Amino acid sequence: MLEVDGSDGGGQLLRSALTLSMLDGEPVEIDDVRGNRSEPGLKAQHLAAVETAAAVADAEVAGAELGSETVTFEPGEVAGGHYGTDIGTAGSVTLLFDTLLPLATAIDEPLSVTATGGTDVTWSPPMAYYRAVKLPLLRQFGLAAAVELDRTGFYPAGGGRATLRLWPSELSPLDLDAPLEPTAARVYSKAAADLADAEVADRQADAATDALADLGVEPVEHRTASVASDSPGSVLVVRLDGAPVADDASGRGRPLAGFDAYGAPDKRSETVASEATDQVRRFRGSGAAVDPHMADQLLGFLALAGGRVAVPGISDHVATCREVLATFDRPVGVDRSGPAPVLVADR
């Protein structure tokens, strides 16, 4: 049984270990789960990930309880079908989906998971980032996946509901080592219906659109939504579209990057827009093909399919995920010879 030190990687390390265990059929023990956090051990969203992974992979599990600091996971065979889970808090639905997304490469029949919790909460990818940035990027390389959003869940009540749908997939190498040269931008702004009178979604989008124009990037899409939710809240996502890979009419390898910001009480809509577009400003000229958050989210797929991905930098999340991948004998190297670090893996 493989052993993984979970003390320094937070929930991401746990999710990565579960995913790799299911893909490789390799039992794993994760010790000192979230040990460097102020409240170590499994919280509701981590427990939901363990329980859902166990159901999908018919696994034997020990330590699947709130507060547990050691989890043992012995997977069986990953199976298709439909599964459901309720995180019970505003814990992140998109992070739960991250645990399952690579399983598209291991299934023989469709797999779907409906989850209730926080669909748009801080420290996790907003739903628009997932649906408009991450999945379109991965579809270029063969991943057959979609997410349907039934209801938005903001912090603190959660109560959002979404379904991840996966189909059997075969990935091609992730060839994303050319810098993203923006050809267009897309703006996605959403706010709770309780904030409609303040025009929060429109103000966020308008301010972001103006700031992008000042950066010389033409927004070609501008979507706003007022949504029912159990808690007030708002979120803004900006997507940058890169030029397709040269001489590739299919567009395979077109870089995409996403940048987001969340609203909060007493936080102006224009401030939310500035936070997102300031990230765009810092990203430009980095030489990277994807945004900083996508860098660590692509590592598992890179290890599965091989390829090269230029990233803005080697963050702590990237470093931790590389360590987990090496434990499962799926190493990802770093090429530092160019303007940006390039993550490299052989298939």
Blueprint (SSEs and pairs):
Layout: E1 2-5, H1 10-24, E2 28-31, H2 44-57, E3 60-62, E4 70-74, E5 81-86, H3 93-100, E6 111-117, H4 127-139, E7 144-151, E8 160-167, E9 174-176, E10 182-192, H5 200-214, E11 219-227, E12 234-242, E13 256-262, H6 269-283, H7 292-297, H8 299-305, E14 307-310, H9 316-327, E15 333-335, E16 342-345
Parallel strand pairs: 1-2, 5-6, 9-14, 10-11
Antiparallel strand pairs: 2-4, 3-4, 6-8, 7-8, 10-12, 12-13, 14-16, 15-16
Helix pairs in contact: 1-2, 1-3, 1-9, 2-3, 5-6
Keywords:
347 residues; alpha/beta; UDP-n-acetylglucosamine1-carboxyvinyl-transferase, Chain; Dihydrodipicolinate Reductase, domain 2; 2 domains; four-stranded mixed β-sheet; 27% strand; globular
Tell me the structural class.
Answer: alpha/beta
| Count of strand segments | 16
Residue share in helix = 25-40%
Structural domain count: 2
CATH topology of the largest domain: UDP-n-acetylglucosamine1-carboxyvinyl-transferase, Chain
Per the principal axes of the C-alpha atoms, what is the gross shape?
Answer: globular
Runs in which pLDDT lies below 50 for 5 or more consecutive residues are none
N-to-C order of helices and strands: EHEHEEEHEHEEEEHEEEHHHEHEE
**Biggest sheet: strand arrangement:** 1-2-4-3
Q: Tell me the radius of gyration.
A: 19 Å
Major sheet description:
4 strands, mixed
CATH architecture assignment of the largest domain: Alpha-beta prism
Tell me the quaternary state: single chain
CATH class of the largest domain: Alpha Beta
Superfamily at the CATH H level of the largest domain? Answer: RNA 3'-terminal phosphate cyclase domain
Count of helical stretches: 9
How far apart are the termini?
24 Å
